[in-house]
Amino acid sequence: MQFQQNVPLAPLTTFQIGGPARWFAEAASEEDIAHAVEFAERRGLRLLVLGGGSNLLVSDAGFPGLILRIALKGIVRRDGPAGAAEFSVAAGEAWDGFVAHAVAEGCAGVECLSGIPGSAGATPVQNVGAYGQEVSQTILRVRVYDRTQSRFLELPAAECGFAYRRSIFNSTLRERYIVSRVDFALRPDGAPMLAYAELRRHFAAGEGRPGLREVREAVRSIRAGKGMLIVEGDPDSRSAGSFFKNPVVPEEKLDRIAQAWDVSRDSIPHYPAGPGRVKLPAAWLVEQAGFHKGYALGAAGISSRHALALVNRGGATASEVAALRDCIVEAVERRFGVVLEPEPVWVA
Ligand code: EPU
Fold first, then answer.
1. Which of 57, 99, 237, 242 to mutate for ligand 1's pocket (most ligand atoms within 8 Å of CB)?
2. Alpha-carbon dihedral sign for residues 16, 22, 28, 34
3. What is the CATH number of the domain that holds 25?
4. Span 317-341, average pLDDT
5. Are residues 188 and 157 in the same domain?
6. What is the reported pTM?
7. Cα(44)–Cα(35) distance, rounded to whole angstroms?
8. Which pLDDT tens digit goes with each residue over 83-135?
9. Ligand 1 interacting residues, C-beta cut-off 6 A
10. Are 111 and 220 part of one and the same domain?
């Protein structure tokens, strides 16, 4: 295992932004993970894990510690209880590669998560979700290196604290665990999930029920239409996907916004989010606050196809993106009294 110095991080991120890592190493095995932790601890370095680099914004100064890129590979299938198909997926596998594999094997449960960039090991961290599915619905357990006990252990899903874009891995126990493998329970020959209105509309005109492959292709094409597929040379995909979480607010907040604007509450897009609470689409708030698709501030900007994706228009610095982020957060708060929370991890 090699420990390199001053390695540029920008090329390793989908944003293509950021300074160097003081130290950089790649883990191809669990032994490598333990070894890297020991290396960092001996030198008093912070250690940060890099998966696919699709959900982070690296500061212009870079990272003063050790960046550990997880490169463990392998997918193993076995029969689980109650007819389930269990897949053990090494953390360094590309997420969309695993989805393609599951769909090809006729196994349902992750097909709506097609086309999401990044690594499989990163998916439990922010409980990746799209089009009605979240990885927490199919994760059985997560195998991790526990930096406190200096050993590997397996956390059942119930201990992962999953919620909307949240888990113990990005909140209460942040930086304690390094994910090495994720186990999923999928349904062999299962029917695809068609929960999301936009996805159902896609198939409304067709005949018969679409299969897993059709749903995968539909999700990929919907994402492509929003610039949310990583396509080489497409400036809209030099981003970290959704830059803000969709805020969940008490229903009264929605009523107050409707009152203040003198419109009906149904003219404001919102979705149920548990008792007495609604989720507001951050993309809508951003646009209403004056930041339209294609908006530019220096070399940072907003995707021309989705208002929630901040993009690097070419040669942007992290401070330019941060300046745009701050303008948006301030304007949305002023207009709606809602504070948007960034979704990508800020690396500094
Ligand atoms: N909207 C706008 N302007 C836009 C786009 C959307 O006003 O430019 C409004 C519309 O009212 C639309 C609503 O926002 O109905 C929702 O938009 P969309 O269906 O595109 O989903 P989203 O809420 O913006 C979330 C996830 C995505 C995920 C999609 C599909 C978050 C933060 N984002 O986006 O996840 O792919 O739903 O399920 O929850 C990501 O996390 O990086 C990500 C891409």
1. 242
2. negative
3. 3.30.43.10
4. 97
5. yes
6. 0.95
7. 14
8. 999 999 999 999 999 999 999 999 999 999 999 999 999 999 999 999 999 99
9. 130-131, 198, 226, 228, 241-242, 245-246, 269, 281, 283-284, 287, 293, 306-308, 343
10. yes
